[in-house]
């Protein structure tokens, strides 16, 4: 895994971030796919540039905000010798010593939560649709293939850059689905390769939307509802393999310490980690339920005759 591509320079810059490069590629691919789909559906392709821009802006803002929610209990804590559980992190860039800071985490290059980006991106785009009095359901159906492809490429960026969305330890040695983790420990812990798993699933449902579903004359909102159900279910399942913190634990969580076990591996990677639904799983369930509600309330399994 390569976090940065080194580029010699006199300014001490470490080089190009591989995650940033692949995220930029994801948006570029989306900017290519979206206007073509808008034109095919006889919608105005001139809106595509604004939709891409608002999607990028919403993704960056929402992904960061939801990341802060994930580490909230690490940022705002009681630290002996320091006053102000909430005021100290607000007034100090790096927060409490030995803990992530609110502002340093918010404006760092890492720490992005996809669902936060998705929800805020949808919010910004919906406001744009409302402002211009556009057909929300039709335009949402048109952006789904681009979103699916963007997510597939973005998850590859997580893997290439060594982002922390790995799975728990496993004894399996399945090509592509398992890799050796060399992050916090150099011992090479075999873990589930959840970024690549998610990317494969996203490429699969992109192919479904791009090459089949969009030609089936489904009713308006149907493609969007299907995406909510398919993506929500995919993320719900993959979260059972990821090393994530439960919002409401159903059993005692493992001790998150870096004390190596007998094989030299960190103890929090050596066992089954899931102990309750994570933030992303609750959002996944909400997306699935909303997608099902749209399908049932609007009878979206039916097709409209005579439309392309």
TrEMBL record:
GO terms for cellular component: plasma membrane. Its main location: membrane. It is a multi-pass membrane protein. It comes from the Bacteria. One of its GO terms (biological process) is lipoprotein biosynthetic process. InterPro entries: Lgt. GO terms for molecular function: phosphatidylglycerol-prolipoprotein diacylglyceryl transferase activity. The chain crosses the membrane at residues 16-34, 50-72, 106-129, 136-154, 191-209, 221-241, 279-296. Pfam families: LGT (PF01790). Its EC number is 2.5.1.145. Keywords: Cell inner membrane, Cell membrane, Glycosyltransferase, Lipoprotein, Membrane, Transferase, Transmembrane, Transmembrane helix. Pathway: Protein modification; lipoprotein biosynthesis (diacylglyceryl transfer). Coiled coil: none annotated. It is found in: Cell inner membrane. A 1,2-diacyl-sn-glycero-3-phospho-(1'-sn-glycerol) binds at residue 155. Belongs to the Lgt family. Catalyzes the transfer of the diacylglyceryl group from phosphatidylglycerol to the sulfhydryl group of the N-terminal cysteine of a prolipoprotein, the first step in the formation of mature lipoproteins. HAMAP family: Lgt. This is Phosphatidylglycerol--prolipoprotein diacylglyceryl transferase. It comes from Leptospira biflexa serovar Patoc (strain Patoc 1 / ATCC 23582 / Paris). The gene is lgt.
């Amino acid at each position: 895994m390569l976090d940065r591509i080194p580029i010699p320079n006199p300014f001490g810059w470490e080089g190009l971030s591989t995650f940033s490069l692949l995220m930029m590629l994801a948006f570029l691919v989306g900017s290519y796919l979206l206007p073509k789909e808008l034109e095919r559906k006889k919608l105005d392709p001139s809106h595509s540039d604004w939709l891409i821009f608002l999607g990028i802006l919403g993704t960056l803002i929402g992904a960061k905000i939801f990341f802060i929610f994930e580490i909230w209990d690490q940022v705002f804590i009681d630290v002996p010798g320091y006053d102000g559980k909430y005021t100290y992190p607000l007034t100090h860039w790096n927060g409490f010593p030995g803990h992530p800071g609110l502002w340093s985490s918010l404006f760092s290059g890492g720490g992005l939560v996809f669902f936060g980006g998705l929800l805020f991106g949808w919010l910004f785009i919906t406001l744009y649709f409302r402002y211009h009095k556009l057909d929300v359901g039709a335009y949402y159906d048109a952006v789904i293939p681009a979103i699916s492809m963007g997510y597939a490429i973005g998850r590859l960026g997580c893997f290439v850059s060594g982002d922390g969305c790995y799975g728990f330890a496993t004894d399996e040695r399945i090509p592509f689905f398992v890799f050796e983790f060399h992050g916090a420990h150099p011992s090479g812990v075999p873990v589930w390769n959840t970024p690549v798993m998610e990317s494969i699933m996203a490429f699969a449902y992109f192919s479904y939307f791009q090459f089949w579903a969009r030609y089936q004359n489904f009713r308006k909102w149907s493609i969007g509802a299907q995406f909510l159900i398919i993506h929500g279910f995919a993320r719900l399942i993959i979260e059972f393999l990821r090393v994530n913190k439960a919002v409401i634990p159903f059993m005692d969580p493992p001790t998150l310490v870096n004390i190596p076990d007998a094989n030299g591996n960190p103890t929090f990677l050596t066992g089954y980690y899931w102990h309750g639904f994570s933030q992303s799983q609750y959002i996944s369930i909400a997306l699935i339920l909303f997608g099902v509600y749209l399908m049932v309330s609007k009878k979206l399994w039916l097709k409209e005759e005579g439309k392309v």
